[in-house]
Amino acid sequence: MLLYEGNDVEALDEAVTGEFSPHGLRVGRGEPGPGRFRRLHRRGLALYELRWGVPVEVAAGELPDFYNVHLPLAGAGSVRVAGREVTSPCSIAGPGTTLGMSLAAGSDTLILFLPQAAVDAAVTTQTGEPPAAALRFDPGFADADPAVAAWLATARAFAAFTASPLAARSPLAAAHFEQVLVHGLVDLQPHDHRTALPAHAHPALPRAVRRAMAYCEEHAGEPISVADMAAAARVSPRTLQDRFRAGFGTTPGAYLRRVRLDRVHQDLLRIAGGSASGTVAEVATRWGFTHLSRFAAYYREVYGQPPSRTAGHPFSADRSAENG
User: Fold this and answer.
1) How far apart are alpha carbons 245 and 239 in whole angstroms?
2) 59-to-2, 16, 82 alpha-carbon distances in Å
3) Residues forming a β-bridge with 189
4) Distance CA 217, CA 255 (A)
5) At a CB cut-off of 8 Å and minimum separation 6, what does 125 contact?
6) Strand (E) positions, 63-128?
7) pTM higher than 0.70 for the full model?
8) Looking at residue 205, what is its pLDDT?
9) Mean pLDDT by 10 residues, the chain (324 residues)
10) 72 DSSP β-pair partners
11) Which of 133, 51, 139 is nearest to 99 (CA)?
12) What pLDDT score was predicted for residue 61?
């Protein structure tokens, strides 16, 4: 549905406010170009395409009960979540988090709007009870991670799907698309409730793999090995290797490393937010990474930035954990 198209920035802003929430808007210099605001889908979640047509600064303040995912289509721009600029192109902000944007005149963006209730329901499906508070996601998507890149591609594919005859004739198909996006987001994007999710209980995985995954989650801060994981899984190390590759597409060692990277990432986010203290090296060592330059390379590969930037001090003197 076309909600607005034209050169009147105030009218466009009024349409945007009506769909989202009140926000501050400052228009940059330049002759107004054609702006457009389309609602592509709105049922369990909503999807929009927004082009302002002029340079703008948007200050949304603290978001209420929804998550806002920005997926750039064209043009330049930057996004700030909780006052910090997001370094990755795609971003997410959620309830209680401030959101700001600086967008060039040619910027065109897909905006995925997820109600908090939908995200809470996805968590409840896995844990049996709703989260005590809204999930706080890492604001930047690490699109170097193949699984995250696949989720972002699925979100963009959803935009194409909404314009298809199938979407108009099959609401159930659209609902399945919605579930893929919500559950995929909860499973893939780091957040502050991640350790509460029983990812190891996925029924499609072999029991030995699930037992090994559970062991990793419970003992990630201890000096465990693949042999320890195999013993917990009640199979030989060779069998565990084979079952991980067949059922999970990775190795036991790589899975353990990813769990530990996630724990490091969450600790660094707490440091950045002021609720914890410490250096990158201290956090990395606590979670089993003793070779700091190698750790920094792993971290950058997954999260798309050096660990010191996540911690909020990009010019940290601890260079040993930044260069890899």
Assistant:
1) 10
2) 24, 13, 11
3) none
4) 10
5) 183
6) 66-74, 77-81, 84-85, 91-93, 98-103, 108-115
7) no
8) 63
9) 91 92 86 88 93 91 91 90 86 91 91 94 84 86 84 93 88 90 90 66 66 87 92 93 78 89 86 86 93 90 83 54 42
10) 109
11) 139
12) 81
Instruction: Give me the half-sphere count of Cα atoms (radius 13 Å) on the Cβ side of residue 265.
Output: 29
CB burial of residue 10 (10 Å; 0-12, 13-18, 19+): exposed
Structure tokens at 177: 């698309």
The per-residue pLDDT for 58 is 92
Tokens of 242: 């084979």
Residues 6+ apart with CB under 8 A from 311: 268, 271, 272, 280, 283
Q: Are 243 and 203 in contact (CB under 8 A)?
A: no
d(CA 79, CA 172): 34
Runs of H (alpha helix) within the chain: 9-19, 116-127, 146-162, 165-169, 171-188, 207-219, 226-233, 237-248, 252-273, 280-286, 292-303, 307-310
Q: Assign residue 278 a region: left if phi > 0, alpha if psi is -120 to 50, beta otherwise?
A: left
